[in-house]
Amino acid sequence: MQNNPLVSVIIPAFNAGKHIATCVQSVLDQTWQNLEIIIVDDGSSDNTLGIARTFRDDRVNVLSQKNKGGCAARNLGYEVSRGEYIQFLDADDLIGKDKIELQVRRLMAEQGKVAVCRTVHFFDGEDPYARPIPVESDYLHDTTDPAGFFSRLWGADGIMQMVQTSAWLIERKLVEQNGKWNTEILLDQDGEFFSRMVLASRGICFTEGLNYYRKYVNGRNVAGKYKSYRHLSSAIDAAEMKSARLLKARNDSRTRKAAANLFMLLAIDAYPVYSDLYEKCMGKIAQLKARPIIPVLGGQAIEFIKFLFGWKIAKRVSYELHKYQAS
Asked: Which structural domains are found in the chain, ordered by start?
């Protein structure tokens, strides 16, 4: 173990000309200076590539490929990287100046683990540092029990949570031993990848420092896109991988409920438009013999309908309202 290990920061970028400069600058401003920044332009049609090439710093390496998607771009960046630790960072997000240093120092002392920090959500156009209130609180913690961490994250205690991509820092050897990003998955790629890494690790180090996640009012983030049949089907594939991995690590009532929650969320997304995908998810839940939670579907009116008539009626009403508003 080196005393000053190299950290590789891999930034996939597609039409990110508006934000790529501030993203890269947040890495250059890190208190941990032994790093390399690998920007992979994924066939952008805007000025992303040109802006990326303006950085006059030997630590910045700019690559370009035909448009193949974020997972392929991350894999290319990883393949040319040299760091002992890997930071994946989306091109419109930022990291706090001490984020990497705090995580590296913990991982140097606790080999075989992964590090995670809290995330500040901010809307595009806002100053990300003006209201630094992280959304995560009690569900991020030190643990030597990755299966227990994901059981809680996926709603075994009644509330489903998420960890944003850039909050993690991982050892290179975890990727070497457990595989790169799955380019076949169209939705929830980060959930599949990091569940694979973390469940193969010795545990999680919760660190101070912050990750800044940019959101868009129009839902431009991948997670906020309208879920087409193809995307939903792919998300179900990801849920199958995630749940199988969790149940292999531990098969008990909590892990089965957590797995059922993954499929319930997708069943709700599929209903009432894609009946076959809905039935597939409900079949998975039946196999698990667990009672999943029903998440919040909308505002007070939709939740009141859900309380009176059940989630299917509430989802149909919500679906028709969205169709009407879009017309």
From this structure: 7-223 (3.90.550.10), 226-295 (no CATH), 300-327 (no CATH)
The string of pLDDT tens digits covering residues 143-180 is: 999 999 999 999 999 999 999 999 999 999 999 999 99
Q: How many CB atoms lie within 10 A of CB 215?
A: 15
DSSP-derived secondary structure for 16-73 = -TTTHHHHHHHHHT-S---EEEEEEEES-SSSHHHHHTT---TTEEEEEE-S--HHHH
pTM exceeding 0.70: yes
User: What pLDDT digit, counting tens, does each position of 189-200 carry?
Assistant: 999 999 999 999
Tokens for 285, please give them.
Answer: 């839940």
Contact 16, 89 (CB under 8 A): no
> Which is nearest to 268 in space by CA: 319, 231, 222?
319
Structure confidence at residue 220 as a pLDDT band (50, 70, 90): low
- Residue 113 and residue 205 in contact, taking contact as beta carbons nearer than 8 Å: yes
> Residue 233 in contact with residue 277, Cβ under 8 Å?
yes
- Whether 149 contacts 114, CB under 8 Å: no
